[in-house]
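Example complex used in Figure S2.
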Amino acid sequence: DGGITQSPKYLFRKEGQNVTLSCEQNLNHDAMYWYRQDPGQGLRLIYYSQIVNDFQKGDIAEGYSVSREKKESFPLTVTSAQKNPTAFYLCASSIVPTNYGYTFGSGTRLTVV
Amino acid sequence: GENVEQHPSTLSVQEGDSAVIKCTYSDSASNYFPWYKQELGKGPQLIIDIRSNVGEKKDQRIAVTLNKTAKHFSLHITETQPEDSAVYFCAASRSGSARQLTFGSGTQLTVLP
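Predicted assembly (226 residues):
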């Protein structure tokens, strides 16, 4: 079955440590996205990519970095510069141009310990 | 850019009653409006969408209405069941928009047995 796989499901980060969240899709979608979700809040866009080797900052890109070396993969690195990284992170993909909905992964819950 | 407002933030209904969630958008060029359902600890799933060339769309117990003049759209769930309890997000986008979907802040729907 086609879909988006996020791993790990739970991740713990120590202060000052970088961590990378994985996102892989086999839907042959061109565009991929990373969102952050805090308790009781909506989805805030971190980064998005419409094509391999190209990506753009979203609304809250500070303290995060991404790469898009393959169409199927869009990993997100949460750096030590992100002062409040504890959140639920969602990856999504879509056809371009997008006049259809996104397909979301099941999310990664990141906690700073 | 686009701004999507969603109301109410929480909604409780008795099983069998109807639930209505409303969203307004700011960009008159937006032409695609999906709705997502997010269960606890999972990624959002597309449940219904509507494009600007129609005013209403139904899928079994779910319907969405769109008023382009007033720039608002609504989700209607009839004969609610406990499994409808979840967070619902509306979103808006326009063709050719590199930023794609803008999400509302979400509505926590609780269906009381």
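The longest strand of chain B covers residues 19-25. DSSP finds no helices and eleven strands in chain B.
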